[in-house]
Amino acid sequence: QVQLVESGGGLVQAGGSLRLSCSASGRTFSSNAMGWFRQAPGREREFVATITRDGESTYYLDSVKGRFTISRDNGKNTVYLQMSGLKPEDTAVYLCAARTRTTISSILYIGASDYDYWGQGTQVTVSS
User: How far is CA 75 from the centre of its chain?
Assistant: First the structure.
């Protein structure tokens, strides 16, 4: 079992920044690929960013490239999403996800079905 707890969401003006954190329980964090997704009201869950278990490789949704950065600290069992240049269309609940099944280190997992555990999410609201 893995428990994921997100924090760091809030209300910010367009152009502002936020840093989301996701703290994971369990001893296998360094073996897990991690991802961030988001879901806006009335819309499907959307991939935002992923990072390999060693933190060496990352991949992003096109619309957030250059604005968002995913990182991880395996010593702290935590993955981060630094968001800058926020836009109103970034408004959503942001969810952290962990893949605990067999993971190939060179593959970047971008589908919701690629992940096994999810946090409850943290709300990000960007005002215009």
Answer: 18
Above pLDDT 90, what percent of the chain? 91
Nearest-CA neighbor of 22 among 11, 113, 33? 33
Provide φ and ψ at 120, rounded to 5°. -80, -20
Q: Is 126 exposed, middle or buried (0-12, 13-18, 19+ CB in 10 A)?
A: buried
Summarize the chain as % helix, strand, coil (round to 5).
Answer: 10, 45, 45
Q: Please give the Cα distance from 57 to 107 (Å, whole number).
A: 9
Query: Which two tokens mark 56?
Result: 């060496």
CA 119 from centroid of its chain's CA atoms: 10
CA distance 35 to 117: 10
Q: How far apart are the first and last CA of the chain?
A: 40
Please tell me whether residue 19 adopts helix, strand or coil conformation.
Answer: strand
Q: Is the pLDDT of residue 38 over 80?
A: yes
The amino acid sitting at 118 is W
